[in-house]
Amino acid sequence: MVDDDRDLGDAQHVHWQSTYTAHPGMYGAEPSAAARRAAEVFRMAGSANVLELGAGHGRDALFFAREGFTVHAIDFSSAGLDQLRAAARAQSLDARVTALVHDVRDPLPWPDASQDAVFAHMVLCMALSTPQIRAIVGEVRRVLRPGGVLVYTVRHTDDAHYGAGVAHGDDIYEHSGFAVHFFTRYLVDSLAEGWILTEVYAFEEGDLPRRLWCITQALPHG
């Protein structure tokens, strides 16, 4: 277990806020490969709106909006979301995108069964304990409608940074100031209990490269 979940998460909040401030648009304007894949999944599921957890400066949220989805984007960094809002205005997408500062460790501010789809790119593998991750997935389940889809990505225990850097317990390691919870396949499967798990897709991203899974799971209809 992590000794102090909240303190580690709060420290990461400060780190991400300063990182987005110092490096505006740090991930570029092109959407992630995971977002491209998710858009296809959401379209096939008949989704109209997408809730993105950890939207950052908005490259994927803006992509979803360009693809015709209504997007609710949340992140705990106001600096990142300020950049998202400015980009949405510049691209005339502000009618399709809303951005809200919110910490995923807290309950989601939407009613039950109000969302068609949820996307989370490398959010669940941040400085979150296993109980916190389970609580977040529980909140996602609550706000998704029957048949709604969750697509999320996580770094896993075959990643080159697993076991490197500062160990915080619970498979969390901090490297170059960024804390990551590396997922086991057991954790993925356990988070899909009560869902329909349709895909666990392995891919790589970045220069290291980071090794990730892209997981798609849906709620049963009715």
The count of helical stretches stands at 6
Give the fraction of residues assigned to helices.
25-40%
Query: Terminal Cα separation, in Å?
Result: 36 Å
- Number of E strands: 10
SSE string, helix = H, strand = E? HHEHEHEEHEEEEHEE
Chain-averaged pLDDT: 91
Classify the secondary structure makeup into a structural class.
alpha/beta
Q: What would you report as the Rg, rounded to the nearest angstrom?
A: 16 Å
Task: Furnish the topology, listing elements before pairings.
Layout lengths: L4 H18 L10 H12 L4 E5 L5 H8 L3 E6 L2 H13 L6 E5 L13 E7 L8 H14 E12 L10 E4 L2 E4 L2 E4 L3 H7 L4 E10 L4 E9 L4
Parallel strand pairs: 1-2, 1-4, 2-3, 4-5
Antiparallel strand pairs: 5-10, 6-7, 7-8, 9-10
Structure description:
- By secondary structure, the protein is of the alpha/beta class.
- The protein has six helices and ten strands.
- It is globular.
Summarize the structure.
This protein is α/β, with parallel strands linked by helices. The protein contains six helices and ten strands, in the order ααβαβαββαββββαββ.
Structural descriptors:
30% strand, 222 residues, alpha/beta
